[in-house]
Amino acid sequence: MAPVHSQEPLSAYHAMKEQELIPHLFRSEFRKITAVLSKIFGIAHLEIAEDIASETFLLAAESWPFKGIPENPVGWLYKVAKNKARNYLTRQQLFTDKVAIQIGNSVNEVNEELETEWSDQHINDSQLQMLFAICHPAISAEAQIGLALRILCGFGIDEIANAFLTAKETINKRLFRAKEKLRTEKVKIEFPAGAEINRRLTTVLTTLYLLFNEGYYSESQDAILREDFCLEAMRLTYMLIANEQTNLPAVNALLALMCFHSSRFEARKDSNGAIILYQDQNEELWNDELISKGVYFLNQASRGNEITKYHLEAGIAYWQTIKTETQEKWENVLHFYNQLLIIEYSPAAALNRAYVISKVNGNEAGITATEKLNLTDNHYYYMLLGELYKDINIQRAKDNFNKAFSLAKTETEKKIIQIQSSRLELDIE
Prior knowledge:
Shape: elongated
Radius of gyration: 24 Å
Largest sheet: none
């Protein structure tokens, strides 16, 4: 994972054609421009910041093909954004009469901020403060992720709609309602004070955790893994660690978990984009550097006495980076799942624990633990039973895979079940 940095070397930009450079910069700079302008204008005028950022990139798309790529493309974007913001202030009497009063600054003061608020440190602070504003408990988790993808990660409405398997109109309405809620709640773009940071950080980490999972367990129509979502979640989590106030054990534990999972990106799908199950992955493709970083952040997470679900899931993910099947490995994983279910029960974690029980105590014990859950509307429940029955009762294994297939909602899920079921057919032959 790349560390947080202000800009890439200019030589890297000049190695790209404008058709490649503008989308690349849109992904990295749109969010920064929006965050800084939103900080100046206030959350109630988020659309103004987004419009100015969009118009800045539109001008780049129109002028760069004819005039050539500027010597410093990022500096050009910031300068244009500042000028457009100034022009907006000049043109809009409404701002003079209402907006400036609302945010407590005169137009001249806002103009001064536009001139001075573009340092690397301020851009990073603005993004972190925006992260806390977006992750306000007044709006739903889905809306928080959508806003984070749009404002802090620079994703388009089409991409977000595809990721959530929903229509563009639905996403537009969801984001509009979320912005309205932030406006009516008068949420400020700032770091929460003192002890409030810990309370609000819980919501922030939940959003980043869900954002990573949206990418890692993608159900979008064209990909089983959205690495870009995962990397954005990691980038934002790293920004929290880089800030002294938010460099806390739970944050390190979450980043450790992300590092361990992302270490298997390359091994997790084949050349056609189809998923490769864990037991079939080529461990030589696992990324040792990311595993080492995961170990580092997990050690950093051990400070203090608090054990969060991120600590436990990171512990489980660590043992998954060891391919060798040993009793020690599965007993440790079972220990972590036992603690995890006490802290935060979920059907998915309970199913995973049942699988681990089969590894520690045998398939019959795993079947007993699974059937106790009685998750009869969950295709993963039947997938696990199919897997556990395959060495005990092939017909029951087949019946369970068929039930799983009938409940699966996406083509990705159906493909995985077909892979498992086809292996059963081979065993029968």
